[in-house]
Write a structure and sequence with these properties.
TIM Barrel; 16 helices; Double Stranded RNA Binding Domain; 3 domains; 8-stranded parallel barrel; elongated; 3-stranded antiparallel β-sheet; 16 strands; alpha/beta
């Protein structure tokens, strides 16, 4: 059975606190949603503003395969604005719980029923497709809820939607509710919120209960704890519900996820299912070994299914199998003893609280592979003079090709002065410092400092690192290590 997707990233998703999309950004997201096969796109709420209406008009004018909707209250003024935007359909939202009817609208149930029916009539008289969404349906009297739906259908509503507005359904109650409503004569859809972290589970249960359409947002963004996550729901249907399908181009899910994250500025948590950066990342030695032998041992799906790639994370929990695989990926072949040494060095660094990056791995591996090389330059001594009214000055004693050399330099700070003291020697003149990065590995004023630099000589670029409690020593050691590598190359 096919499950249709109504994506409301551009309406409910944009209601995420702090998110406001421009017309161009909305257009880019809508274009991608249409490309990957979303059936219905709720482009916004036409009543909101002139800018919102211009955005909806632009999306409506593109001739997308997807049906374009606008949110609307059951009021003629809202519906007229929707008509001005040339949308195909309206998501006509009618509150149905006692709480909303009495405390928010302050009308009777009979008045609410008339309001709903009249709004449906007005939409149909003007040629609009109508999806009638019952707001707070999960806290509504089921008999009254069904009466609202039956009346709406009699007046021409094309689809109906159950909204779990404050996310209070559970998978069991979701299934029960949709089972009680699935005898209506039009498609029924599910709109869930994630206040208790159950939006995806409740949506899947709704499908089993009879829903043939689901409302989602990319990355699950939305008010409060957000909405049903598009990517989690679509992939779950594909992998876990064999009797259902969506027709979504699943291998493009990661692309649309990253697009929405970038344009909205809403950070994707690393451990988020499907699209989080850790979703297909492995550090544990046992896991990495299993994945290399057969990915199904520790992955329920291949990363390629959703447009991802697998990553082996470098850290203290890793084993040699995963490490060797990662080394091969960056073009390094090592023997067994070198592999063990690299692994030990990584664990030592990780034990200091340091997250080991690919740059770290490259530097550690290079150091191990080059352990038999004799460095041409060695630091023997460094002295720094710096103060409130003193220009930072450094003097260094280097051993270059076995010869002792003294030199001095000044700079805007002590690190700059120390590097300048070395750089002023003739053999360094063609070497350019192109990147300098500092991290504090541990906490406190006595923290270990990790300095990573990149140096370039002609077309050759190398990375090097220095780790010390003293930032000046760490910087100078990193610089000299990089220069030695360039000179060997």
């Amino acid at each position: 059975m096919n499950i249709n997707i109504l994506d409301t990233t551009l309406r409910d998703g944009e209601q995420t606190p702090g998110v406001s999309l421009t017309s161009q950004e909305k257009f880019r997201i809508a274009t991608k949603l249409d490309e990957i096969g979303v059936n219905f796109i709720e482009a916004g709420s036409a009543i909101t503003s002139e800018g919102e209406r211009e955005s909806i008009k632009e999306i409506s004018a593109q001739g997308f395969n997807a049906e374009i909707l606008s949110f609307s209250r059951p009021l003629n003024v809202d519906i007229d604005y929707c008509l001005d935007c040339d949308v195909d359909a309206v998501n006509l939202v009618v509150p149905t719980s006692d709480l909303h009817i009495s405390d928010k609208l302050k009308i009777s149930k009979d008045e609410l029923l008339d309001l709903s029916n009249n709004a449906v009539d007005y939409c149909k008289d003007h040629g609009l497709i109508v999806e009638l969404s019952a707001e707070d349906a999960s806290r509504s009297d089921v008999d009254f809820l069904k009466n609202i739906y039956v009346n709406a259908i009699d007046h021409g509503a094309d689809r109906i939607c159950v909204c779990d507005t404050v996310g209070i359904l559970t998978p069991d109650t979701s299934y029960d509710l949709f089972s009680k409503l699935n005898d209506v004569k039009v498609p029924i859809s599910c709109h869930c919120h994630n206040d208790f972290g159950l939006a995806v589970a409740n949506t899947l249960s709704a499908i089993k209960g009879g829903a043939s359409e689901i409302h989602t947002t990319i990355n699950g963004i939305g008010e409060r704890a957000g909405n049903t996550s598009f990517e989690e729901c679509v992939v779950s249907i594909d992998r876990l519900l064999p009797d259902f399908s969506t027709g979504i181009k699943i291998n493009q899910i990661y692309d649309v996820s990253k697009l929405v994250a970038r344009l909205t500025g809403v950070y994707i948590q690393p451990n988020k299912a499907i699209v989080g950066e850790n979703a297909f990342a492995h550090e544990s030695g046992i896991h990495s070994d299993g994945i290399i032998k057969n990915s199904a041992t520790y992955e329920p799906m291949t990363p390629e299914l959703v447009g991802r790639t697998r990553k082996f994370i470098i850290g203290k929990h890793m084993g040699t199998h995963g490490l060797n695989s990662r080394l091969k990926e960056i073009g390094l072949e090592v023997n067994e003893s070198q592999l063990k040494q690299i692994c030990d060095d990584i664990k030592d660094l990780a034990d200091m609280g340091k997250t080991v990056t690919d740059v770290d791995l490259q530097v550690i591996a290079d150091n191990v592979l080059e352990i038999n090389h004799e460095d041409r330059i060695k630091l023997d001594e460094i002295t720094i003079v710096s103060g409130n009214k003193v220009m930072p000055t450094a003097s260094v004693k280097l051993i270059v090709d076995g010869e002792e050399i003294l030199n001095a330099g000044v700079g805007i700070g002590p690190v700059d002065a120390a590097i300048n003291a070395i750089k002023s020697l003739g053999m360094f003149k063609d070497i350019e410092l192109i990147e300098y990065h500092v991290d504090s590995i541990t906490g406190g004023t006595d923290a270990f400092i990790d300095v990573i630099i990149k140096l370039q000589k002609e077309d050759n670029v190398v990375s090097a690192r220095g780790t010390e409690a003293d930032i000046i020593n760490a910087s100078v050691k990193a610089y000299i290590a990089g220069v030695n590598r360039l000179l060997r190359d």
